[in-house]
Write a structure and sequence with these properties.
Distance between the termini: 72 Å
Number of helices: 14
Structural class: alpha+beta
Strand order of the largest sheet: 3-2-1-4-6-5
Strand content: 15-25%
Oligomer: single chain
Length: 468
Amino acid sequence: MNIQMDQVVHSFMTKHQLIDRHQTVIVAVSGGPDSMALLHLMNKAKEKWAIRLIAVSVDHGLRGEDSAEDFAYVKRTCEEWGIKFVGTTVDVASYKKEKALGTQEAARHLRYEFLAKQMNDFAADVLMTGHHGDDQIETMMMQMVRNVRPEAVRGIPVSRPFATGRLVRPLLCVSKSEIQAYNSQYLIAPRTDPSNEDTEYRRNAFRKHVIPFVKGENPKLHQHMQAMSERVREDQSYIKKQAEEVLGIVQFSKELRKSAQFSIETFKTFPLALQRSAFHLILNYLYINNTEDISYLHEEMFFSFLNETKPNAELHFPRGLTIVRAYDDMMLSFQQEDFNTAFHQPLPIGETIELPNGDLLSAEWSEECKSEGSHVFVCDSHHVKLPLAVRTRRNGDRMRVRGMNGSKKVKDIFIDQKVSARARDRWPIVIDSRGEILWLVGLKKGGECTVGEPGLWLRLHYENKADT
């Protein structure tokens, strides 16, 4: 089987179009079995592909002399094989402290930072790493343990954009044992990292205790997992593209404080799979792709909330994200509302005042009864007692609605008009000096309006800042 590994890898590279002829290819080499086999394989193939091959190694300095010897081994081997070598030593300990990261995460950041620099310096097209089929099994099984969402179990991608080109993984099609056999065949004596045996690291624990059992059940599991990873990624790519159409009904804020708003009934017309994907795309926008605090439980909470019958309700997500349901309207926002929303301020005739939320309200006398709209109120002067004021609602508020007999509770008007519970507490109400409610702005009008009678008319005009 080791004799066929070249062919398997070359076929895999061709299938996925991992490299083209005459490209510059960088191989990340640690000195371990996987990267050394990859470097040897690409060195043999460089004439076939007509590529420029460069080996890059990073000494993380985490194992003292052993790390330095790994680095020296890679450099020495590259000289023997006639491969251009570039390397560096990084200070993981200082970077870890500066950025408040774990050791492995800090090492990874510094490693890929240096690799990206080499990609730019050499104008390279491809960066290759030695991830193999057993790594794919480990990754996908770890994802299965941590996640319930199928789209989260995607494995290691064969290829992804990186620096000036792409990062590719040609060995995902072969197993660890095949790589070991390859090294034995070509008398490659790679270095070993003892920390790979430390089962305090979750991946090492899976590698030592889980993978041998499942591979014993199915020796070709790495092939199956790779096929599954590719299929899941293709399916999810299609679903994501379709879900982006759902985002067409969502209004995203253009302000510093991010928010998203949509019609619940319109959202629910899409298939559930697209609703789920759109939900996560919305969260990616709001959390700026930093959604590690979101689990499947939050997804279940959201969809239960989406299908509630209560017209007004709130749901709270990590890091201050509030989801507000107001009848058919759904709003997701980090905006912190000022709970002291009550106000009461005079409304002088001939002036325009600014309400606490930035909306404008003006009052003037007019010699004619001009046509009204939802944002214009007209009333004859005989039925108004000055001065006027504008305030928010109070318990027990009632108004005599124009055209109706008797009075009606303001609370009931809000309910009938499907005004959200939050909005009710800051809704502007115009009153006269008697406390008579003249106008529940934009909703209902009171006061007398005897069309055709001569005299002065009171004209109020409301301007919503969102319309300006």
